[in-house]
Every structure is written in structure tokens, then in C-alpha cells.
Amino acid sequence: MIKKWLFSCMLILLSSWSFASPNPNSAAFVVGLAGKCMDVKGGQLNDGAEVILYTCHGGENQKWLKQGDQIKTVNGKCLDVKDGNASTGARVILWSCHNGDNQKWRYINGTIQSKMGSCLEVVNADPRDGTPLQTSVCQGRPSQQWSVEDTINAQPQPLPQPVPRPIPQPYPGNLSHSVKIIGLANKCLDVADGKAIVETKVIMYSCHGGANQSWRLEGSQIIGIGNKCLEINNANRGDGGNVVINNCDNGDNQSWKFVNGLIQNKIGTCLDVANASTAEGTAVKTYKCHGRANQLWRTENIGSDHGRPGPIYPESLTTEIRGLANKCLEPDYGRAADGTRLVMNNCNGKSYQQWEILGDVIRNINGKCVDVKDAKNKDATPVILWSCNGGDNQRWKLNQDATIQSKLGRCMDVLNASTANRTGVYTFKCHAQNNQQWKINR
User: How far apart are CA 85 and CA 79, in angstroms?
Assistant: First the structure.
């Protein structure tokens, strides 16, 4: 059966289940959204136990075996689509192993696909501990992406850092030139079908520079095609409000401000790409502000409006950050969890080695910011990922001497000038020696 599985995988250019290990019978960790692990709720490895997303801790209820086309716990229970339900939203549980299609899985391009045709995903793309897993139409979105790893950093979670309440940042005056508003997967805020009529929905679509992706930022209004204003339809104050264009009327539901990369309405909710989907035509909604990747936005000028003010949120540069021995800065094991330490590793072209330079903010492609742990201005303070909050410990200056200096005062430093893979990055007094030299392609 194992040979059959491997052979079928080769036919579709897949690796074996345990692509991090040559031994397909070894237990592995299945890591998904926000660097968290597939976990059996409460450690109850019995029939009907719910399978959830949870912070990786290395327990037996986070260890999985791929045997044939089944995924098993260490006590031999199988990953199972509950009741063999082939519909979107079917929950995933443990059950005694049998030969049903609802217990057969394969790994395809980072997704885990049931033989019934749907993919394993995190419900509502919610990265919080305890979020259930379900099956849904395979779209390859972040909530359906999984990696299989032999080892994890099963370290105690850091104590939460205080997150300062963002200071509202209204638009600084009228910017009458046109900008693109770019969000998840580098797609553009788009008026559906290019219709300049009231209550036309606003969606995400590949950037093409058309009139329906052109926006003017005037006062607190965002004005699009046909001089219509971006608004929350019917002034919906709850989650899931539809975002449309409408005749401008200066209502609270048409009043917006940028807050640390979020676009927040005066009502209090934030512009949000529904379900964190990267599919063309995904609806734009409003939800409670949380600062994850599907709520982060930037603007870029359209055309060559030289001499006019720059965009509200600085144009971004996406790049590798290379340091000592030409190695790349990355979150350890590519994780996105708050508190993940930054390390140096061989450059591999993976997305988690890509960084956005947004003014004085350095943000990983996963949406988390480079952060001086606990805002300590002391030598040997770890540099980590943390949810973006606008604090001085997340502000950086790219100096002419090739150092990267925290607003707190110290510089990013490869510990002990070591060239070993997974060497940690810390802050130390600036000295501009080799282990504080960084290269950013502009």
C-alpha cells in the first residue's frame, strides 16, 4: 500500500507524505496557518475527537503518521471527514480506521486533499488556538496550506507583549492624484465589472490599472470610478458588512483612515478580504480589526504624478534581506506565530524569506512585523516576529553604512558572527562590522 501511495504521488509530481524525512513511517507534525499544528482537541485520541489548529507543543496529540493513503495518530486512529460528508464545511475528526474514501488523503502542492475531492482547511482562516478543521473546495488559500515537519520548536510560548492602541491617522489633506489600493496576494481593490453605479460591490482582482481600480483619497473619503465613494452598505456595524461604492454623502460609513496598514471605517470595523481568499473576485467586507494579512493594505501611485504627494501608506519594496555569508533572514522554520525568532539560513526562494519594506516598518510576507522582543534596548535582545502594532520596537532605519537600526537605538546583529544555519538575530550596539551588514535589493 505504501509503495502504491508513493508511486501515485510520483505520477503527479508529488513528494511522499513525510517530505521532511526519508522514513514514511516516522511520526511528523502537520503545520498550517500561523505556524500552528494540527492537533486532537484535549489530547483525547478516541472516536469522534475533534481535530483543531493549536500552538505546536510536541505532544502525542500533534504527531501523525502517513500509512498508505491514511493519516493516523500514534495510537492508530484515522483522520476522518465526519459522516463521509462531501459538502463544504464538513468537520474533520478522529475515527477507527476503515477503507472509506473519507479517510483517504494525499498531499498536493501544499494542500491535503481528501479522496472525496475537498481540501483540509482552517475554519474561517482563524489562526486562534482551538479553531476546528474542516474540508472545503480546494483553492490553495493560506488556510489550506500545510507542511509536514519532523521537528518543531516546542518551546513555551512567550508572555504576551503589551500592544499599544493605535493612534488614528487620518489622511493628511486632499490627495487628488490616483492610487491603487493593494492588499492580499498583491491584488487590487476593484469595483466589480467596472460599473460606476450605486451599490456596486467592491472585490479583489489582479491589478490591471483600469478606471475601476483607480482611487482618490480626499479627506476621509476614498473616491473611485464615477466619483462614487467607498462605503459600508447600509452602514452595517457588525462583521461581514458589504463594501460597495455609492454617491458620496459624508456619512460615517464613508469615512476611512489608515491605522498601521489597516483601513478602518469611522464605524470601527476594518476593510477585510473575505475568508482570506486569494481567488479573483473575492468580496471585500468589513470585520473587527485584527491586523492579519487579509486586512493589510498599501497604496501605490498610478502613472507618473511627479511632484505630487506620495501615497498615504508608503509604496512597498518586497525583497530578500541578506546578511553574513550571503544568507537570508527568515522566521525560524518559516513560522508566522507571534514570538517566532528571526534567524539566518541558506537562501531558498521560499515566500517566508520575502520581506516588505514599508517606510520604517519591515513586514514578513506572512503579515507579521520585525520586532525587538519586549521593546528592550539592551544588547543580546532577540529580534522576533510579532503582530504589527506601530510601536518603536517595530520601527527600523536602513542606514547608509548597511546597518539596520531599531528606533530604540541598537542594530540588527547576527549572533557571534556565526555563519551556521539557524543562527539567531539579535540587537547589539551598532558597530557596522560584517555581522551587522545587510543587503536589500532596491
Answer: 14
